[in-house]
Every structure is written in C-alpha cells, then in structure tokens.
Amino acid sequence: MTSQFYMPTRVVAGRDCVRVQGSLLLPLGGRALVVTGGHSARLCGALDDVTAALTANGQAFEVFDKAVPNPTVDSVYAGVERVREFGADFLVAIGGGSPLDTAKAIALVAAQEVPREALFTGGLRDEALPLACVPTTAGTGSEVTQYSILTNDEAGTKTSLALPCLFPRLAFLDGKYTLGLPRRVSVNTAIDALSHCVEGMLSNLAGDITDALAREGCGRICACLPGLERGELTEAERDSLLLASTLGGMVIAATGTTAVHAMGYSLTYHRGIEHGRANGLLLPAFLRFCARGNASLVDRALSACGMSSVDELEGALGRLLGERERLTEEEIRQYAAKAIQTGNIAKCAVRPTQTDLEEMYRESLG
Description:
The protein has helices spanning 17-20, 40-44, 46-57, 73-86, 97-112, 183-201, 208-223, 225-230, 235-255, 259-271, 275-293, 295-304, 310-321, 329-339, 354-365; strands at 10-13, 31-35, 60-64, 90-95, 131-135, 147-152, 157-162, 170-173. By secondary structure, the protein is α/β, with parallel strands linked by helices. The protein has a 6-stranded parallel beta sheet with strand order 1-8-5-4-2-3, sandwiched between helices.
C-alpha cells in the first residue's frame, strides 16, 4: 500500500514570530482583510502584532471581527462582502478554529463568486485568495489543513469544504497567544488535537509519515494532561501544546478524520457541546470498537499516548471533562443516522455500521 503526504503551508514558529517574520506576508498581496472574532485576538495581543507587521510592510488592511463560533454561512458571506468593498487581495486569520475556517471559506467564495445555494453542493474550483493564519488556541490545526468546517443548517449538521487551495500559505505559531486561555478552552482544544492525532492513526489513509507526526503529537499532549487537569500550564507546555495541535492538523490533512468527528458534529450542532469536548466524550468508545477489529492498531495509538489501556485514557479524559451529557434513544438513532452518511466513516480502518455508531453513543452518553 502506498501513502502520500502533502502540506504546502510554510510554518514559522517562535516567540514574536509575527513581528520578526512579518515580511513573509509581503508576497501575499497589498490589501489584507484580517478575519477574527470579537475579543480574543485583541486580548492576547495577536491582532496588535499582525496589524503592526502589515503596517511595517506598507500593506493596507481592514479588520473583520465578525467570525462566530461554529462558523455560519452568513458570517462567510458577510466577510466576502467586506473583501469586495475593501478590495482585499489576501486574508490573515487570527483565532481558534472558527475564525480560521471562516477565513478559508471567505477566501474561497471571494475568489470564485460561489452562490450560497452552491456552497455545499460540490463543483467548486480549486481557487482561493491567499491566506495566512495565526492560531490563538492549541487544538484545531486548521492553520495547516485544506478543510473549512461550516455549520450547514439545511443538513442540520456541520459540513467540511475540502480543497487544496484552502491550505494557508503561511502559519505563524506563537504560544504566547495561548497563555491567557481559560481552562475550559485549553482542555477542549487539547482534546481536539489529541483526537486528530489518534484518529489519524486509526484511519485507513494513515502512513509512516502521519503516524510519526501523530505519535509526537500524542506524546506532547498527554505529557500536559496533569497541567490541564490542574488548570496550570507552564509557558513551555503552552508552546508544546500549540506545536502538537499543528502536528495533529498535518496528520488529518493527509488522513482525514474518522467516526469520532462524524458523531461529534451532531453533538455540537444539536446539543451545543463544544467540538473538542464532543470528541473527548466519544473517543474511548470508538477505540474499544476498533480494538475488536484490530487490537494492534489501537495498542499503537495508546502507546503513543503513554497509556496501557482504553480505560486508562478514558479515566484521564474523564477527569478533564467532568460530568457527561446524556442522550435519549431518539437522539442516538437520529445522530447515528446522520453520522453514517458522512465521508468520515469510509476513512475508518475498522469501519462501523449504523448500529455500531448507536452503541458507541450509548456507551459514551446513554
């Protein structure tokens, strides 16, 4: 079996890298739309650093701070309108996964004038405006993937746009932007990154390169679990988690995600459960399911986490997640029916049926 690895994003990492290496933004264009949420980018200093770099470069910019959690089609098209009014020829995204995914979709739609009704129907050209990303959470890995995950109200779930043009041109990694994150955000984003690494190892598209990246990511995240549990992370741990998040993004850029993400989307859309938390609630049950079909594969993933059993991993996650939400039987059947239709299921090295998905929901949240 052959495997492939492609990740064209240039990654620059280190303290104050945005200001020190800001000239790397020059080839992207002359007018930038800076996409972010309402507050976090300002509070952590990332917005100041980006605008200082753009100013030093002589690049005009406008800030679009209307990115919302679980990005909506409305927020994307509002951003596209600002691109056209301002005449932006590239974008800079600052924030967690939601602003980054919003910016990717804006870059795509602005480059090829996609009607709203055609956004999720396929047939999109591989063309987008250039994009640079500055992550301010350590979880999504969106700064190095070709995915934009948007809320799809018509389908009642979240839907992924996936095109090579959505790979950002640049990613700036500076752990100082994550220093002030609340414990809840730190926990949920770290679990998201861990899920990316573990799911990558359980994908039928995994290879030696992605497994090597996933093992490094798992090791870094699990070394920080005690600090996450206490709510006390050192600067070095914050830097390590951010790097692990990017490694996880590199993994799923090649392998995609599996049933955990497919099942988690309904928890987020219908129940408002944050994405990383949803993954953490479901991951142990998926590992137990996979172990029944390929125990050695699961053992390798657990070994990467420094764990000897699924029970041990579940205990560590449980201490972070606290009391679990509960689903009704009707919800379980409804969510499993949606998850089985996603492309994530075909990527599972051990492929579940709809009945299997229902059992995993019951084990996790029944």
